[in-house]
Amino acid sequence: MFRYILALGLIILGAVLVLANIGIIDFQIDEYWGLIIPLVIMLLGLKLFIDEFKYKGGSWIFGSLLVIFGSLLLLGELGIIEFTFSDIVKLWPLLIIYVGYSIIKPGRRHKTFVSEKDDKEKKFYDKKVRRLSVGDHEFKQPNWKVEPMNLWTAAGSYYIDFTKAFIPEKEIPITINSWAGDVQILLPEHVAFRIDASVKAGEIKIIDQTADGVINHSIFYESVDYDIADRKLDITVKLKAGSIRVDTV
């Protein structure tokens, strides 16, 4: 639905600009740019919100934030209220609402598709998703066993030391999702791994690769022996705000 709305909007905008360029209608895009941007932000937020409930990788939290932010920007441009881009900091109490909702929100089960090298057959397994929590988490006990994990945190940091862990000879998926916090991962050089890391606002540093700036950064890194290794870690980290750091020793 969203792509059809976007396509229709682009078609209409293109047609209007063509008519304006040949003098049939009077249209100055500079006069309407202040209205177009809030509408685009609202549509993007609506898509993220809907995709979350359709299990298509969206985010109801970030989506609802964009819808609210875009709506306030639009009202500001229309002169109904006083609100500009810099006023986004005034929306910080929404984080409290999101955290409160996450505490009472029931967990759900995800079905994940993984490849097992032992029998070379593709299998499905059910993996429990932890209820969202607040606080720091550490995995650094001597000889702790690495198992498939799907970790969700509203606010807090993760420190995961795989150099002290027992890692079975198979592909092990690790997923970390957090709204706000830092993720630091320490990996042994002899263990193959790949990591898909993304952050909405913050920075990422994986070995010798770095991404920082304002918004929306991602890095995908895969060790050279990942495909042929028996023991390997498939790591996904997604943050709304914070930093991601991965080192090897």
From TrEMBL:
| Family annotation (InterPro entries) | Cell_wall_LiaF, LiaF-like_C, LiaF_C, LiaF_TM
- Superkingdom, according to UniProt? Bacteria
Q: Which GO terms describe its cellular component?
A: membrane
The residues that cross the membrane are 32-50, 57-76, 88-104
Task: Determine if Lipid biosynthesis is one of this entry's keywords.
Answer: no
The Cell wall-active antibiotics response LiaF-like C-terminal domain is annotated at 134-246
Residue limits of the LiaF transmembrane domain? 6-110
Q: Name one Pfam family in it.
A: LiaF-like_C
Query: What does the UniProt keyword field contain?
Result: Membrane, Transmembrane, Transmembrane helix
Q: What is the name listed in the Swiss-Prot or TrEMBL entry for this protein?
A: Cell wall-active antibiotics response LiaF-like C-terminal domain-containing protein
Please give the organism.
Answer: Lentibacillus populi
